[in-house]
């Protein structure tokens, strides 16, 4: 049975006590992170926890733990749940208080919850590529915050799902921003192009790893908004996220990307990424 973290304690689901007045429940008033686990070890945990604190600070939420304490809690969850390949989910809400929109008058303690769960790497998608559907980006203007408010992302992903696509790619004012739960990259004439890390996207941890790998491999990068039309003319396309790693996109809105198979630059980046994770897992 899964062991969860809540209220400073590790506990089983049966004994979880979440208040109906939790502001996460009422308003999505909180932030979260997902950290990948390979071979029982957290991957880029410091970067994720640092971003959690940045997201919290941007919504004026004080996390009642230090970064190191949260990393230790994540490690404990991995151990308690005996997770080898999987992920840790952690969220922090502003706490429980009678429902008013503004922050509670009386100080309430933010609620930190988390769990670790087994989840295999999506090898089929990583190797074969996926189809995506473009949708209008109707989200707010603070997409840099990893907020629990994900309704626009949920609706976009559902739209993609109904079209037999794995991911929805957001288009704002004709420009490709990111996926509903991933960052988006095009490759044209050997150059990797991706939206800059502004308020219009989440600066993904995997995105940052990929940009580092491009540097190491001598692949040119342009961090700029590219248009929907440019997207349709890319030689290659791929998405990145903690759980989907580097996933090639082989079809956009029913039209093949390039040859319709994962491209060479994408594959080179995947190989470099696989070298960063434990060998036994990379060969899974
Ligand atoms: C909207 C959005 N963009 C990008 C990402 C990718 O971020 P990361 O690589 O840190 O998982 C995510 C991950 O869930 C996301 O939800």
How would you concisely characterize the structure shown here?
With 284 residues, the protein is α+β, with helices and mostly antiparallel strands. It is 30% helix and 30% strand.
Structure description:
The protein is of the alpha+beta class and 284 residues long. It has two domains: 3-118, D-amino Acid Aminotransferase, Chain A, domain 1; 123-282, D-amino Acid Aminotransferase, subunit A, domain 2 (D-amino Acid Aminotransferase, Chain A, domain 2, Alpha-Beta Barrel). It has helices spanning 23-27, 45-58, 67-80, 123-128, 151-162, 205-217, 228-232, 264-274, 279-282, and strands at 3-6, 9-12, 30-38, 41-42, 86-93, 111-118, 130-136, 167-172, 175-179, 183-188, 191-194, 221-223, 226-227, 236-241, 245-252, 255-256. The strands form two sheets. Strands 7, 8, 9, 10, 11, 12, 13, 14, 15 and 16 form a ten-stranded mixed β-sheet that branches. Strands 2-1-6-5-3-4 form a six-stranded antiparallel β-sheet. Strand 8 (167-172) and strand 9 form a beta hairpin. Helix 2 crosses helix 3. The protein starts with a strand and ends with a helix. The site of pyridoxal-5'-phosphate has 12 residues, from helix 6 and strand 14.
């Amino acid at each position: 049975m899964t062991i969860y973290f809540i209220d400073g304690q590790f506990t089983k689901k049966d004994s979880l006590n979440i208040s109906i007045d939790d502001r996460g429940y009422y308003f999505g008033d909180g932030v979260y992170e997902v950290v990948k686990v390979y071979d029982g070890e957290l991957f880029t945990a410091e970067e994720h926890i640092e971003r959690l604190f940045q997201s919290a600070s941007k919504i004026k939420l004080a996390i009642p733990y230090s970064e190191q304490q949260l990393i230790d809690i994540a490690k404990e969850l991995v151990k308690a749940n005996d997770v080898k390949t999987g992920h840790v989910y952690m969220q922090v809400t502003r706490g429980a208080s009678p429902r008013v929109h503004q922050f509670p008058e009386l100080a309430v303690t933010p609620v930190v919850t988390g769990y670790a769960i087994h989840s295999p790497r999506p090898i089929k998608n990583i190797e074969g590529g996926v189809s995506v559907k473009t949708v209008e980006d109707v989200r707010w203007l603070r997409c840099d915050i990893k907020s629990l408010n994900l309704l626009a992302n949920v609706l976009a992903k559902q739209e993609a799902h109904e079209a037999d696509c794995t991911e929805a790619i957001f288009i704002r004012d004709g420009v490709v921003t990111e996926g509903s739960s991933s960052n988006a990259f095009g490759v044209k004439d050997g150059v990797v192009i991706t939206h800059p890390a502004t308020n219009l996207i989440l600066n993904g941890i995997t995105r940052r790893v990929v940009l580092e790998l491009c540097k190491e491999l001598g692949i040119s990068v342009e961090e700029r908004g590219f248009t929907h039309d440019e997207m349709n003319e890319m030689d290659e396309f791929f998405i990145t996220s903690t759980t989907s790693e580097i996933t090639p996109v082989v079809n956009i809105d029913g039209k093949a990307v390039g040859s319709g198979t994962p491209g060479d630059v994408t594959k080179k980046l995947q190989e470099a990424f696989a070298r960063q994770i434990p060998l036994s897992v990379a060969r899974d």
